[in-house]
Amino acid sequence: MLAQVLPNEIFAFLLVATRISAGVMLLPGIGESYVTIRVRLALSMALSLVLFPLVRELMPALPVQPLEMVGLIMSEIVHGVFIGLTTRLLLSSLHVAGTVIAFQSSLAYAQTVDPNQGSQGVLVASLLTLLGVMLIFVTGLHSVLIAALYDSYALFPVGGLLPADDFAALVTRIVAGAFALGMKMAAPFIVYGLVFYIGLGLLQRLIPQVQLFFIAMPAQLMLAFLVLAIVISSILLVFIGNFENSASLLLRPR
Q1: Contact at 8 Å (CB) between 220 and 106?
Q2: Number of domains composing the chain
Q3: Which residues of the chain have pLDDT under 70?
Q4: pTM over 0.85
């Protein structure tokens, strides 16, 4: 009897671990490059052990054909990657806002490696992204991401057809919304840059003898830091509210 039950249980746990691991490897804060692979793997295995009894009845039986088994595993990888990638795309709004702020404050040339984006980015974008990840854990929204992995079994059953159209529509909606949100969060700096450069042009026309470049650069940096200190809390509040609303789209209706 054990020889008949054990392979089915091992295969069911393998399916759960495949989806959970693929999602955990891309979740914000957990799936970052500065988090070692061993830590991410240990966390994904722990979550799989916790969720396995809850979703065991949703797992199919061990298929007879090897190709069917490979198809199920690949399908679970796609579902996990979709959940993780969708939540990671929500962070791109902070990257857009930080890049716009950097251009408006003449800080675009100061670049560093952004650990959350995995590429080179401006300092302001890296700062906002790190603060956004910190807020996700401080406010407890990381539990929503874990709940999304659990609810994905109700939204996307194991062995079902991949809803490619729904995946593409949701990703497109999130990317467009993230770009629009990033521009909204950077709106004070867009107005600031417009007013500053218009005033600088007027001064240059009124006092053409003065080299305003050497005066404008320090003033622009000082005013940009002042505006950032005033609006950074509002930027993060807008982001975390939008992140919660967007992440709730991955939860099943209750």
Answers
A1: yes
A2: 1
A3: 1-5, 110-121, 253-254
A4: no
